[in-house]
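Structure request: Validamycin A dioxygenase, Pseudooceanicola algae.
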Amino acid sequence: MKGEFDNIPIVDLSGLADGATEAARSESVADLKTALETSGFAYLSNHGVPEDLVDRMREMNVAIHALDDKEKQAMRINEFHRGYMPMSSSTIVTSSVAKVTRPNQSESLMVMHEIPEDAPHFGEPLQGPNQFPERLPEVRETALAYMAEMTVLGERIAGGLAEALGLPRDWFAQHFQDPTLFLRLLHYPEQANEEELFGSAPHTDYGFVTLLKQDNVGGLEVRNKRGDWIPAPPIENTFVMNVGDILAKWSNGRFVSTPHRVKNLSRRGRYSQPFFYDPSMRALVECPPAMLEAGETPQMEPVLYGDYLLERLNKNYDYRKKAS
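Returned structure:
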């Protein structure tokens, strides 16, 4: 049942790979469906993303946060939500699971999908230039290669999710023609064990799916229906996947967007690299009638994904509040 879990399952995604048998695909889809209907979280094994690329991305993440303040400030986050976010610059006031009053104890570099300057929508909300450290040119190369691989993984997962909801395999593709992509390169310093202080305060993600690569420090916890916080420690060669709010709404509540948090009490820095695979800004998100059972009605009003996303960013990030 929804929310009744004491651990997070490992789902073998090899059945979603090109060339997999229908039997293998059916098994992967069924396991994914069970995990996301129960806990909204899963460890993904056999995901197809090269581990050497994952390792290089982690190395680049560590190198970014070893830069001095002047170099970081040169990449200060711009109006397009790309660049460096210093410590304590985001507070999750839109959290539906806790009253959050203190900012997250983390710093990060936010990278989004690349937008050519001659693209017709360049300059629109969230459609602008990324920022990378001048002294580390390999960061850009690695981040864009990593995002390309993660996008392919996101596409495979979206196909599996459509089938899990009884829809055609390519149903979500129409809404991801220009996907909204975020790669957040995070550093959580060691923090005090204060009740109201978090690396990331209790929250649910507000997008489609999150694909997280952790280092070996730990600190991620997921809340079950009883209110227990279940550790989600790193497992080698896996990503942690979770459902975001927009997918929970799109699925009419079949998939659950589960509260989670980060507390880094390890006495050393924690580095993580969540990748957020979200629909096009212009995508109209509404529950597909083909998915509804007799007598079932949509739980959400249709919404343009871009409007939904901007409302949340504007409330949660200090730089956007100051600009408004």
